């Protein structure tokens, strides 16, 4: 499999015990069973988690690409080369357009600063393209970059757990010692649960409408409305 990873070093993550509630003083996690646990790293999704863009419309993307399922990348990768190439051209065009209106999610910088101050490494895993992550770091994000970061060029991408397991190898820690934070139950939570990580779902309101329909693999350990 073709894998792309960006990292500063392969050094082991510092070992420290922290409360998962420290992610945001204002949050009200749905579970208190993990109020204290060993946390050696936090992995974030990008779109809809660290940053937001009103221009990234996945419903319109599915329509333009011609997808019949909710998993755009998974379906597109099953197509023949010609159709797949055309589809990725459309996806890339829409992603690049969305970058023009991308802004940092409220509270994301503060959470990152808190982790940096505690000596806890932070990584990024996204189903977006490598070029979008580079743009995010160069143009949108004003702090030190996430390291490592993995884009969809690292395969298999979310919801497979491979990206998280790879990061744990780099950090020299167990999956149970990291937190996966994202806004997608079907991608971020499934990936984190499959890896054995603690999962935190950022729910802006859209998830709660069908939370009762979650399969076991999509149930996050904690659910919060936003970072702040």
TrEMBL record:
UniProt cross-references to SUPFAM superfamilies, sorted A to Z: HAD-like
Any single Pfam family the record assigns to this protein: Hydrolase
Chain intervals for the UniProt region annotation (Disordered): 1-35
InterPro entries: HAD-like_sf, HAD-SF_hydro_IA, HAD_sf
Biased composition (Basic and acidic residues): 1-10
Compositionally biased residues, Low complexity: 19-35
Protein name: Uncharacterized protein
């Amino acid at each position: 499999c073709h894998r792309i990873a960006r990292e500063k070093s392969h050094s082991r993550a510092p070992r420290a015990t922290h409360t998962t509630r420290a992610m945001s003083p204002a949050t009200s996690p749905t579970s208190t069973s993990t109020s204290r646990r060993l946390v050696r790293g936090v992995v974030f999704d990008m779109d809809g988690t660290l940053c937001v863009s009103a221009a990234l419309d996945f419903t319109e993307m599915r329509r333009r690409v011609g997808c019949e399922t909710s998993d755009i990348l998974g379906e597109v990768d099953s197509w023949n080369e010609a159709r797949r190439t055309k589809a990725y051209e459309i996806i890339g065009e829409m992603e690049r357009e969305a970058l023009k209106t991308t802004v940092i999610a409220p509270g994301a910088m503060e959470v990152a600063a808190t982790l940096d101050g505690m000596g806890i490494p932070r990584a990024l895993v996204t189903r977006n393209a490598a070029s979008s992550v580079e743009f995010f770091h160069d143009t949108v994000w004003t702090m030190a970059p996430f390291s490592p970061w993995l884009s969809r060029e690292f395969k298999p991408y979310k919801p497979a757990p491979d990206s998280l397991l790879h990061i744990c190898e780099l950090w020299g820690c167990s999956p149970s010692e990291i937190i996966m934070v994202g806004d997608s139950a079907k991608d971020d939570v499934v990936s984190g649960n499959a890896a054995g990580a603690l999962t935190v779902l950022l729910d802006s309101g859209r998830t709660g409408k069908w939370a009762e329909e979650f399969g076991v693999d999509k149930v996050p350990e904690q659910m919060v409305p936003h970072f702040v």
